[in-house]
């Protein structure tokens, strides 16, 4: 690889800590909705425990399936608050991380791991406070020998993640928000939260109708103009 195209990029532009803090107050689903129902990683990536939540800038890693050499390189370079995001090609033949790496990451102040691959030591990790999102689990350990890249664009479960993008994950899964759009998305997210709270309050007070439903059914050709359910 040429001098201008290094395997490892050390300097990245991150979404700010203030925006991360604000974003952490929203559900991943809210952010995905106001982002145009896009940005969510495929549903195969889930937290090792439903209570796990994560928010922070993406520190991206591409590895060869079953090898975690570059994951270790990222762990050495990542800064407090970062979420290490690993393109593991969806491989579950061996685990790319376990208790030792998650303990090291937590000691460094990292925010979490999101890996498109398997993890192990899941029971121990689930009992702790460091969030790990993965495709699943496997007791096999990885190799540590093959090259990859750090802080290049990666793709996890069908969604592209760029270094420094906002990552937010919870029991529903993980959503990525491009760092350029975070402030706008957070404004829209608050409006949606307020609107949903109003709607839920109306339902609880007895308003069980959906005001948009009939018009949408007509537009879809399910009902004719003037018909009702």
From TrEMBL:
<keyword id="KW-0479">Metal-binding</keyword>
<dbReference type="Pfam" id="PF03737">
    <property type="entry name" value="RraA-like"/>
</dbReference>
<dbReference type="InterPro" id="IPR005493">
    <property type="entry name" value="RraA/RraA-like"/>
</dbReference>
<keyword id="KW-0460">Magnesium</keyword>
<dbReference type="GO" id="GO:0008168">
    <property type="term" value="F:methyltransferase activity"/>
</dbReference>
<dbReference type="GO" id="GO:0046872">
    <property type="term" value="F:metal ion binding"/>
</dbReference>
<feature type="binding site">
    <location>
        <position position="121"/>
    </location>
    <ligand>
        <name>Mg(2+)</name>
    </ligand>
</feature>
<protein>
    <recommendedName>
        <fullName>Putative 4-hydroxy-4-methyl-2-oxoglutarate aldolase</fullName>
    </recommendedName>
</protein>
<dbReference type="GO" id="GO:0032259">
    <property type="term" value="P:methylation"/>
</dbReference>
<keyword id="KW-0808">Transferase</keyword>
<keyword id="KW-0489">Methyltransferase</keyword>
<feature type="binding site">
    <location>
        <begin position="98"/>
        <end position="101"/>
    </location>
    <ligand>
        <name>substrate</name>
    </ligand>
</feature>
<dbReference type="InterPro" id="IPR036704">
    <property type="entry name" value="RraA/RraA-like_sf"/>
</dbReference>
<feature type="binding site">
    <location>
        <position position="120"/>
    </location>
    <ligand>
        <name>substrate</name>
    </ligand>
</feature>
